Every structure is written in C-alpha cells, then in structure tokens.
Amino acid sequence: MIIDYVGVKEINGSLIVMDGVKGVSNEEIVDIRLDNGTMRQGRVVQIEGERIVVQVFEGTRRISLKNTRTRLTGHPMEMPLSPEIIGRVLDGAGKPIDGLGDIFPVKKANINGTPINPVSRVYPKNYINTGISTIDTLMTLIRGQKLPIFSGSGMKHNDLAVQIVRQAKISGANSSNFGVVFAAMGVQKDVAEYFKKSFEESGVLSRVVMLLNLSNDPIIERTLTPRCALTIAEYLAFELDMHILVIMTDMTSYAEALREFSSSKGEIPGRKGYPGYLYSDLASLYERAGMIKGHNGSVTQIPILTMPNDDITHPIPDLTGYITEGQIVLDRSLQGQGLYPPVNVLPSLSRLMKDGIGEGYTRADHQPLANQLFASYAKVIDARSLASVIGEEELSPTDKKYIEFGRLFESKFVNQGFNENRSIEQSLDLGWELLSTLPRAELDRVDDALLDQYYKGDK
Predict the structure, then answer these.
(1) DSSP symbols for 330-398
(2) For 198, what's the count of Cα atoms within 13 Å in the CB-facing half-sphere?
(3) Which CA distances in Å does 159 have to 91, 175, 196, 337?
C-alpha cells in the first residue's frame, strides 16, 4: 500500500519535520511533491517515535507547510551502476550532466556501502606509479592504500590531482583494467571546467568517472558525492575486477557541509564546531579502500584536503591522519620558491610503502635509497638552521655540502614539470645522482654493495 503524507510540521534550513509517520527506516529515501507539481528527493536522517526529520537534497525553498505530499520509497539512496559509467560526467548525486543520456543500470547499490570484513581483506602490495619523483620514491602509493594529500588554500593541489589522474598507472595492469573515479566537492565552476578540459585534452577521460559538486550546489549533495564515488569504485573493482584510483577533492568542503548539516539538526558540536561523529564519518569513507579475497580488483584512495590556516592539527587533517596510512604534505614556502609540486618531504610518509617496493616491485635499492634521501635532507634542514644563526660562510665543509645538496634536491628532484612523467627508474637514478654530490662517508643508510654499484661521486 502506497501512502502519501500531506503537509509538514516544521521547516528548518534543508530539513523538514513530519509527524505521524509509521514504518519508516533511517536513511530511507522519500519523494516530495510540491504543490506546483515539481518533485524533490530527501532522506530520513532522524526518527523519534512517529516524528521524522527529512533532509531535502534540492533545498526547502517553496515547500509548503500544508500542501506538500511526501511518499516513502522503502529503500535507501541507490546508485545506478553499469560498465558504461566509465567516461561519464555526473553531478554530485550521481546523475549524468554530460548530455549523453541516462545510465541504464545493470544493478543499483546502496551508496552507504557495507563494511569490508577485516578477515577478507588482502594486505595491500604492489605500487601505483604516479610519474612524480617525490611520491614514487619517498612516499610510494600502494595498490589498495588510502594516502591523503594535505594542502592549503590557493596551493597547487588541483594541478597535482590532474597530473596524477593523467599519469597514474599500475605495473601489470593495462588501460582496460585500470580506471579513475574523480570526485570534486564544493569547487568553483571554473575549477570544474579546468578538470574536465584537462582530462579531455590529455585523452584520459575515457577511463575516468567524474562527479562534480559545484560550490553553488546544495550542501546536502556534497555529503553524498564521496559515497556515490566510492559506490562506483567498489562496483568497478569488485564486480568488474578493475584497479580503481579514487581521488576526492576537497574533503574540507565535505566536512564543512557535514558541520552545517549537523548544526541545522541542533546536534552538540565538537572541536571547532564539527560534529562529534566526524571521525567515524570520515572512517566510513576512507575504510572503503582496499582489496578483498577472491576479487582481482582494488580500490585505492587519494583524498585531498585543504588545511584551514595551513594548520595540520586542525580536526580534519588530524582525524584523517589517524585513519589513513600516511600523508603527502604540500608546503607553501616551497610553492613560494616556484617549485612544483611543492611536496614537503620530511612530514610526508607512506606507511605501507615498505611492502610494495623493492625486488620484484620497483628495484632492490629503492628502500635504502629512500632512507638515505630522508636522512640527508633532514641534515640539510639542520644545516640551514645553523646557517641562519652563524652565516653560511662559517659552516663546516660538510655542512656546506649539505646546503648544496638541499638546493639540488629541491630544484631537480622535488621540482618537476606539470607535464613531466618520470618512470620509477628515472626517479631512483636521479636520487643516486644527487646523493653522489655528498661525501661517501656521509651515506650511512646504504650498504657498501649498493654504494659500489650506484655511487658516482669521489671515493
């Protein structure tokens, strides 16, 4: 039996309150018919006896307290899925906006997903090559990993996201079983056009699914976008056996939409006004990355977030760091020096890197080389601190060598062109070339056999 509920009790922002509703479930989708005949959708976000609170996706403007008709659909929000979804451009709620018509679904899936049983998880191994030296060599992205990028407002994380989409590839995977799901949340229209144009011009749009939530779209849609993106990724990975890289930008916009929604519900705020469940909410997204026994595909995540006031202790990057397996940190001072990508090496890391590199994956010398580059660059920072006190001319000859190494490391290794795609061999060889500018005795993280093979400096 289909029942229409006429009228609403209360309207508050994007929420409507209804009384006398029976047999409803949390997250259930409702169809809302306005008195002018137009249709909107919402979802049940709170149930108190026979009183329910419904979040309206398109906003509550022009909704009447008396004549609005609401119908329960009996199911949560579902995403239509089909192999033809690859190459399509969708809005933040998963509806096509590329003018190519609707997606004819093979199946529909609940966008909230289901938790992956830890017992059925496969430990992530093998790396994804991004063509960017700092990432591939020092904080390697492993298939099935979640590795966020911590950026700041106005920095070049959008360019970096485009470059990763354009260049990313997996060893042993060809173009037919590797794809990208790209979700943009709260972006300006010109930024959305930049993403679309960049993917079209580079020819990678045919293997990318784009979800675009613009800054003037309803904030409620922004809370759906990452869930729709991950539902698509899970379908492609675990039913079509593809390797999927999910890039989500900007998670700060998502968290702020969540804060606004929580405030409108009258919930007690936590740190900096964000809801107390921000940690579990972010975890429900990030933990959808991984590999599952019995399936050949994988879901790898790169969430991008802008740190308010470049504060890495802000709740969003802080909680993200607890959940994910490392981070790539962009530095404003490096960008100010004209370096791209401005990756700050020392606070960046990949916790799963050790199991996806080395013999059989990248090259046998990869891990010791990375350890030595980290150690040497840390000494560069110490030498620069000392030079700021006593002057560079007063430094010891070894410290001067480190100062020079730092300049070369940043200008040649960290800095690379937007269109420059380096293989892992090129990046590793470049690392050895730079280490060869230091005295051999200073390279204490590498054994003599590797030094005999790769060290090109004065013995």
Answers:
(1) E-HHHHHTT-SS-EEEEEEEETTGGGSSSTTTS-TTHHHHHHHHHHHHHHHHHHHHHHHHH-GGGS-HH
(2) 20
(3) 21, 22, 12, 17
- The whole model's pTM is what? 0.93
- Domains in the chain (CATH in brackets) are 4-75 (2.40.30.20), 79-355 (3.40.50.12240), 366-454 (no CATH)
What single-letter DSSP state applies at residue 413? I
**Crossing angle for the helix pair 366-390 and 424-435, to the nearest 10 degrees:** 40
Residue 218: the pLDDT is 83
Q: Is 71 helix (H, G, I), strand (E, B) or coil?
A: strand
> Which tens digit of pLDDT belongs to each residue from 159-215?
999 999 999 988 755 556 899 999 999 999 999 999 999 999 988 989 999 999 999
* pLDDT tens, position by position, 20-67: 998 899 889 999 998 888 999 899 988 999 899 998 888 888 888 888
d(CA 278, CA 273): 10
pLDDT in tens, 329-387: 999 999 999 999 999 999 999 999 998 898 888 999 999 999 999 999 999 999 999 99
| DSSP bridge pairs for 210 | 89, 182
Q: Where is 69: in which H helix or E strand? A: strand 69-76
- Report the phi/psi class of residue 444: left, alpha or beta, with left for phi > 0 and alpha for psi in -120 to 50: alpha
As a whole number of angstroms, the distance between CA 310 and CA 329 comes to 10
Q: Please, are residues 195 and 210 in contact by the beta-carbon 8 Å criterion? A: yes
Sign for the pseudo-dihedral over CA of 284, 290, 294, 296? positive
Give Cβ neighbours of residue 57 (< 8 Å, ≥ 6 apart).
Answer: 40, 41, 42, 43, 93, 218, 220, 221, 224
Q: What is the spatial distance between Cα 47 and Cα 23, in angstroms, rounded to a whole number?
A: 11
> Residue 74: what are its φ and ψ, rounded to 5°?
85, 5
Element (H, E) at 252: helix 251-264
Establish how many alpha carbons lie within 13 A of residue 48's alpha carbon, considering only the half-sphere containing its beta carbon.
Answer: 7
Q: Which two tokens stand for residue 239?
A: 């039913």
Describe the strand order of the beta sheet including 343-350 as a list of residue ranges.
89-91, 208-214, 178-187, 243-249, 298-306, 149-151, 326-330, 343-350
Are residues 330 and 344 in contact, defined by beta-carbon separation less than 8 angstroms? yes
